[in-house]
Amino acid sequence: MNDALDTQAATREWLFKDGVQVFGPIPEARLVELLLEGRVGPGTLVANEDGAWRPASEVPGFLVHLRKAEARARVEAEVTGAARLARRRTALQGSALAVVILLLVTLVGVGAFLLATRRWERRSALLDDLGDGIAITSARVGNGARSSAADDEIAIPDLPAGAPAGASAAPKPHAAAAARGARPGAATGSAEGGDLVMAQYDPRRIQAVVARQQGSLAPCLRDEAKRSPEFAGDIPIEFAVGNDGRVAALWIDEPRFKSGPLRECLFARLREWSFDRFPGQRPVVSLSFRISPL
User: Fold this and answer.
1) Which of 107-111, 162-166, 247-251 bottoms out in mean pLDDT, i.e. has the lowest?
2) Are 49 and 181 members of one domain?
3) Which region ranges are annotated with the description Disordered (predicted)?
4) 52 and 135: one domain?
5) How many domains does the chain have?
6) What is the rounded distance in angstroms from the CA atom of residue 4 to the CA atom of residue 12?
7) Which of 33, 57, 107, 203 could form an SS bridge with 42, CB 3.0 to 4.6 Å?
């Protein structure tokens, strides 16, 4: 009897509807394949030779196939969802890794830039790069040993504050010697009658002039670099500012430059600088230039 039922099912043909369209007739075996593939669902209307339309879920022979189709669909959905989640997680991890690498590269680049330029340091306006391998490495304004030890080289007249630029008084070569031992920054000079006159120059205003004018010394150093291409190193200089606000003397400690065209050029340029006039002992400005081979 079962064989007869199987034979009857194998020869039975079915119609099914998809919306308003009717498909078939197709063998029952083919309709089962469509059920398993999910192309025909439990609510799809089907009909056999009797012409009665009913949902596939109401046909006893199709129930087992519908359950198999539902189970397969759940498994495929779970597998697809897991794969999609894995792909999404991989994409997020890749994006996070790319962001981390970009941040590291940026930090390394910024660090290298800061290390090369030392931008985090507050650079004094007195320190400058003059180009062509020439730079100012140190600058200082004060009295110094030369202010008191070399008064015989520069007479320091005591001018009242606000005196005309051309005014002068009798030179007092040993004025600073009388004031030795005074605290730095409060230099004194000798006035008539033996009284001491406190120097009234403002170091900050002198620094401002140096910072503004120091670039005018660059041509002298460039010319010397051309004359002495083998030289590389520091050239420290000191110059004294007289009471009339003009540079009165220049010292270069490097033996080869104590005299010659470099000293003459620097002194000529320094003589063009203009500082405030003041009474008392002169200040000495120290600069150090570094010449590096190009």
Assistant:
1) 162-166
2) no
3) 165-189
4) no
5) 2
6) 12
7) 57
CA angle 30, 36, 37 (to 5 degrees): 90
Give tens-digit pLDDT for 23-78.
878 898 898 888 888 888 888 898 888 888 999 888 888 888 888 888 888 888 88
Instruction: Tell me how far apart the alpha carbons of residues 77 and 60 are, in angstroms, rounded to a whole number.
Output: 26
Cβ count within 10 A of residue 243: 27
- With a cut of 50, say whether residue 7 has pLDDT above it: yes
Q: What pLDDT, on the 0 to 100 scale, is given for residue 86?
A: 80
Supply the range of the domain harboring residue 36. 2-67
Q: What is the pLDDT of residue 40?
A: 87
CA neighbours closer than 13 Å in the CB half-sphere of residue 232 = 6
Distance CA(37)–CA(10), nearest Å, equals 19
Clarify whether residues 19 and 145 are in a common domain: no
CA distance 189 to 99: 67
In a domain, 85, yes or no: no
Residue 84 pLDDT greater than 60, yes or no: yes
Do 278 and 199 meet the contact criterion of CB atoms below 8 Å apart?
A: yes
Residues 135, 251 share a domain: yes
In a domain, 93, yes or no: no
What is the C-alpha separation between 259 and 262, in angstroms, rounded? 7
Residue type, 290: R
Residue 11 phi/psi, 5-degree rounding, is -100, -10
Q: For residues 275 and 209, give the distance between their C-alpha atoms in angstroms, rounded to a whole number.
A: 7
pLDDT digits (tens, 9 = 90+) for 102-122: 888 888 888 777 666 555 444
